[in-house]
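User: Hi! I'm a student and our assignment asks us to look at how structure tokens line up with a sequence. Could you show me two examples?

Assistant: Happy to help. In each example below, the sequence comes first and the structure tokens follow. Example one:
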Amino acid sequence: MVGVGWVVLMDDWLGRGGPAGAAFAFLAGGLLLLPIASTYGRLVREIPDAGGEIAYAEGVFPAPVAFAAAWTMVLSYAIVCPWEAVAVGNLLARLFPWFNELPLYTVAGKIITAPRVAAGLLLTGAIAGVNYRGIRLSGVVQNVLTFGLLSLFAIFTALGFIRGNTDNLPPLFAQPGTVGALLSVLLVLQVVPYFMTGFESIGKESEEARADFDPRHFRRAITIALIVGLSFYVIIIVAVCLVFPWKRLVAEHLGTEVAFARAFSSSALAKVILFAAFLSLVKIFNGNFVAATRLLHGISRRGLVHGSLASIDTRRHTPAMAILLMAVLTAGAVFLGDALLVPVTEVGSLAVGVGWLSTCLAFIARARRAGPTWSREGAATASIGAVVSLSIIVMKAWPSIPGSFTLPEWIAFSLWSGLGLIFWSLRKRGAREAPRPKELQA
């Protein structure tokens, strides 16, 4: 859930909302997602399946609708991978200026350099290699990176609150007045779903949980993940604005590490933050890569896309072709460079909204069919989640709403939808679900 947006896009968040607008948007956005998280927790307990959204929707929605929802959800994970592959070059350039040398071409006014492209391709290859070797290795890597990030985060945010100055906070919102304050929150709220995506990915790995894992704990894990994620974002936004005047940060397009470095006159602290960001970047790249490939595998296992994506490496028990496809798509996107960063967050927000909406509606439909075996409380919670999810979609799709999709975002979303139509047309009609691999049963 936590990548490097808190470093490379802090100026964008504060430019949209200011310190109060950005912090409140992440807090409110995270809390609004709790009903969705609860719904996922209930469904994962009953249906532990790598197919995620398509597993929840099948049997209650027509196959094309279930596929469309799941394919769009793949986008929400798949789109994070190229984001991180591009962001690693941006991050390394902050440490090593020569990463901005050897220009190749420009995309949307952004210069693409050879070192940045090479870094993105190397990281993509490394993540694909780790995932090909098995979920156990991927899990070990994820644990090390996550706890490393949280340890460093605790250090520099504590310094920020101790040494920070509240005089740096005003104005609290990017836009003046009451209407401006609401607009400030709305503009940040629109990208919050993208940065909070990940709590529901637990369902995609549910088949690979330990044999003695109590399914009731899935819901707890999902809820804790969401709460920790929203807390992380709120804390870092406030800490940055306490240590450095946010207006200057936005005007000079500075990152989080520069704000801390100038506030403490310490280049070493900036390097600590960048190292934490690097751990975070690799962590979220790996996590989303796992989720995307498992979801692709789950869709293909049902014969709804080409059957090769359901294939499993006989030695390592990993979805080899799904891993290869994700690696190729990610590597291709690396060549688009930094122009990809902000539009991707916009597209990702719409994509997760579609996936979350389908899941909440699927739960409601299942609850009506099952009767008292599915709790009324769960159906009510899912209804709230459906309203929240629909609101996310409307915020991005309705043209008159500030911050809604522009032409580049619609083009990106249309290209992904077109790819889905191609896969759907190549599906094996009447195919039965493929046997589950040993490791995906564990």
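Example two works the same way, sequence first and then tokens:
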Amino acid sequence: MQRRSFLRHGGLAAATAAVPFQAPAQIGNQPSMKITEIKTFLVGSTRGEQGGTGNISGRNWVYVKILTDQGIHGIGEAYSCGPDEATVKVIEDYARWLVGQDPRNIQHLWDYMYNTTRFPGGSVVNSAISGIEHALWDIAGKAAGLPVWALLGGRVRDKVRLYQSIGGSSPQEAAENAVELRERFGFNACKMSPHNPGDNQMPYNEVTRTAGERVGAVRDAVGPDHDIAVDIHARYFEVQRAIRVAKQIEPYYPFWLEEPIRPENPDAMKKLADHVSIPLASGECNYTKFEFRDLINIQALDVVQPDVCVCGGIMEMKKIAAMAEAQYMMVAPHNPMSPLATMVNIHFAASTPNFLILEYRAPVDDARRDVLDSPPQVNDGYADIPNQSGWGVELNEEAFQYYPPRPWKRTTGFRADGSVAFI
């Protein structure tokens, strides 16, 4: 675990004084409040010693903690993009701007970070903004004595539906994993890859055929009413290839087909949507309402999947959801990060009418059990909605010493001819 903090001192006064907007002395009956310090915690998701390079089994989690002069603090999580030290550095740079400001002026501070960055941010910048934004909402909820969902319009549901991904080196193993997941946790939905390991080395037709075999095996195992989402994970570049795989799995009524092609070209996604009958889902690689605009407006998707740790934060995700609602689309947040990100997503789901289902990973390993004082409560495939102020949870900073950060990178796929494949 690495912890960094940024305090207001010396030459930083000029940076914070440059903000033209001055908050009132108090908000309602609440006294004035100022940010005094911003900390970051870089925590490994697996127990072990720091060190090593290259591929590892786990990734890091990037936490933000904002302190105020009223003794109230807030916590948030930034996305782990790979160069996690870079995300920490961006958060530290933003701290130069934010110390001294009232943390409850969330939209103003979001605009200040986003606009002053000048160029549209990528994954690192938007992850930093997202983690900071979460912590600001946590402070606002604690100051008001309300859960964050109550500040976002109130509850529209009693519980939050969850699903979890399954693995499997063969169709039979995938089917067994789906059944075990349902029996162990009560989920009535799962997500799976249609690919067998090493399919980048396989002939095109073999990959297409075995995709149908894998999904068919899982459908036979879980029955006709279990929802099965299928995730290609943006491994296809050609639209026609995605269409042919979609035709193979259509008979098994997938819940959706996720990231069937690369995310850069909305028109290509629309072309795909016009040729398949499976609902299409995508969005984890898109940031802010500006990147989601075209995908939503041209009706390229049925389900949008922003990630609250990289899309700009929970308020930005609410705006994306509102845009999707106007086009009759549902929202199923991408959520591979830590239990803190899950809790932020639960507040989003609690207050968003077109929320569909939330990606989840049960805390069965050490880190997921340890990093929060109490993980989200889950019963029969649904998460409880917390009623405590803020997010309703706190970081267990004492546990971080057992989870040092490690260098990591995504697995790289190679085709049979040695060229780099999409993965």
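Here is something you could point out in your write-up. Residues 151-391 form a domain with the TIM Barrel fold (CATH 3.20.20.120).
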